[in-house]
Amino acid sequence: QPILDQAAGFICRNAAACELLQAYGVEPARIHHVPPAVDTVRFRPATAQERDQAPDRQRGEDRVRVLYAGRNTPEKGITDLVFALHSLAPEVRAKVTLVLAGIEGGIEAPGLELEFLGAVPHHHMPDLYRLCDVFCYPTYPTPYWREQWGIAVMEAMASGLPVVTSDVGAFWE
Fold this sequence. Notes:
It is a single chain. By secondary structure, this protein is α/β, with parallel strands linked by helices. It has helices at residues 2-6, 15-23, 48-51, 55-58, 78-86, 90-93, 125-131, 151-158, and strands at 10-12, 31-33, 64-69, 96-101, 113-118, 134-137, 163-165. Strands 5-4-3-6-7 form a five-stranded parallel beta sheet, sandwiched between helices. Strands 1-2 form a two-stranded parallel ribbon. Strand 6 (134-137), helix 8 (151-158) and strand 7 form a beta-alpha-beta unit.
């Protein structure tokens, strides 16, 4: 509570965060809704030549690269994403690579190609989006956490990727 009382103001990325601060007693005049933004010069759709730089395409393979960028925590829904992809028909699943940015390992999915990238510096993310075909962000709420806004979703959209998210948080406001 001392932080709430002493802060000159608060910047919120979405209406839900603004409402939460008001519920904690912060006066509306100290709450500023500033939607997140993405640098659309850096985060832009891939050219055909850039898309062809993906490792599997360089090997002559025609694969769909599904990108997830985030932590490997239960609320981020990575287990659900792996399960969903593993549930694809075998002939479809055989053409999918799940690219995991921010995750170094610890996930097993027999029959599904996983590419663990570990921590990816933010300045490398524009190139990573351009190498992939789809972005998935399967987050879900828990009793003590709710997705406020995944900036990666906006970066992926600015990069021209189709985006699949769960229906929680600011994605559905």
